[in-house]
Amino acid sequence: MTRSSIIKISKILVISLSSLLVLFVLSLATLHFVTPSRLAYPKQDHFHFRLQYVFRGQAEDFGSPRYQVEYIKDVCSGLLTESPIHFHDNKDQIVHLHWRGITGGDVLKFYGNNRIGGLDNLMGYKLDQVLSSSPKITRIPIHSTSLPKPSGSDKYYIYTGDKNQFQKRDIQDFTNKTLEEFLGKDSKLRKDFEEVEKLEKSKTSFNPLTIQAEAHSGQEHKTLSEAQQHDLDTQKTASEKKAIDERNNQAGSSQKSSPSPTKTEEELKQINNLIGNVVIFVQESEPTNEQIQARFGNLTPLEPSVCGG
């Protein structure tokens, strides 16, 4: 093979590889464009809120099979779930949220009422494993198209509160703000996770597993092996579970000293990490106070379990 042939082939290879790289970058940029960062790079959480969706006078039953999912009940492992949102145990109203930063618009779209854009049947793509040792991009499909959508002169009327007091809210705020922001209450588990992450980050800076000791002169600095990373992940999971258990014990401590056999509503909210209640009416005219009060007087009871899914 002549020198000119080698140069020609080399140029073709360089151009081909460059084209593939440009195509990859453009594809990744497109996926970023159609996927909010909270979904593209999810972080674990586990909190709840009650949702009632009343469409033209008929309340949706979220306890019905078209909304429900089966799940593995080991939710205290600290692992990230495959889906960000779900209903289970045939319970109505109780929305389980397992990824941080979820908005009300995400919840509506997940069940078929898309107010946030993008493809109707897809939440987006998980991109957190793109640069891992086993690169992959994962689709995040919606659960179903079960939620009725408004048409004609239908309007949204949204309220938050409880049986004692409630207030009218803006549907745009519900759609675009995180649920924690909208309901004005933090997920306690998210704060626990963030404390663990801060602690882990501070330790990692000086972790002997991540760098070679200076005494080993002449050896290059090394990153974590798979076994070492596994050990760190195990430690993190144990810390997260300990934080959950401690919070659960604190919530139940007052109950142990009380003669009452049942927990108070506030204790149950703490244990279940419940951040609020939302009622949405979809109809032509604004609901009456009696109709609104009836919905907040019909809240699904909470159970005394922090790790029930």
Short characterization:
The protein has about 300 residues and is an alpha+beta fold.
List the helices and strands and how they pair.
Elements lengths: L2 H32 L2 H4 L3 E12 L2 E2 L25 E2 L7 E6 L4 H7 L11 E5 L11 E4 L13 E7 L4 E4 L1 H6 L2 H5 L4 H17 L21 H31 L8 H8 L1 E10 L5 H8 L13
Parallel strand pairs: 1-9
Antiparallel strand pairs: 1-2, 1-4, 3-4, 5-6, 7-8, 7-9
Structure description:
The chain is of the alpha+beta class and 309 residues long. Helices cover 38% and strands 17% of the residues. It has one domain. The strands form two sheets. Strands 1, 2, 3, 4, 7, 8 and 9 form a seven-stranded mixed sheet that branches. Strands 5-6 form a two-stranded antiparallel sheet. β1 (44-55) and β2 form a beta hairpin. α7 packs antiparallel against α8. 25% of the residues are buried. Residues 209-226 have low confidence and may be disordered.
Based on the model shown, name its key terms.
single chain, about 300 residues, alpha+beta, 7-stranded mixed beta sheet, two-stranded antiparallel ribbon, 9 helices, 9 strands, about 15% strand, globular
Mind summarizing the main beta sheet? 7 strands, mixed
Show unreliable segments.
209-226
Q: What distance separates the N and C termini?
A: 66 Å
Any idea what the shape is? Answer: globular
State the order of secondary-structure elements, H for helix, E for strand. HHEEEEHEEEEHHHHHEH
Separate helix tally: 9
Radius of gyration: 25 Å
| Helix share bin | 25-40%
